[in-house]
Amino acid sequence: MTYSDRIVADHQVMLGKPVIKGTRITVELILRKLAEGATPSDLVTMYPHLTEAAIRAALGFKSGL
């Protein structure tokens, strides 16, 4: 599975920013929270619709830019 299976960009959702599919959680938010010291487990707790696989997809998306 690649990041493109979990991340979408639609101009009608969050102004076209890349988000986790089926949510309004942006890749930018995930990366910022991780940079601030949050762990993947912290993020899953804060955002129940988020999965660790989606977090890995966000990191893969960043690497693919």
Tally of distinct domains = 1
Q: Biggest sheet, strands in spatial order?
A: 1-2
- At the first level of CATH, the class is Mainly Alpha
Helical stretch count? 3
Secondary-structure element sequence?
EEHHH
Strand content: 5-15%
* Average of the residue pLDDT scores: 93
Shape annotation: globular
Low-confidence stretches: none
Secondary structure: elements and pairs:
Blueprint: E1 7-8, E2 19-20, H1 27-35, H2 40-46, H3 52-64
Antiparallel strand pairs: 1-2
Helix pairs in contact: 1-3
Report on this model:
With 65 residues, this protein is mostly helical. It has a single domain, classed as Winged helix-like DNA-binding domain superfamily/Winged helix DNA-binding domain (Arc Repressor Mutant, subunit A, Orthogonal Bundle). Helices cover 45% and strands 6% of the residues. A two-stranded antiparallel ribbon has the order 1-2. The model has no long low-confidence stretch (mean pLDDT 93).
Keywords:
65 residues, 3 helices, Arc Repressor Mutant, subunit A, 6% strand, two-stranded antiparallel sheet, mainly alpha
Q: How would you summarize this macromolecular structure in one to three sentences?
A:
With 65 residues, the chain is mostly helical. The chain has helices at 27-35, 40-46, 52-64, and strands at residues 7-8, 19-20.
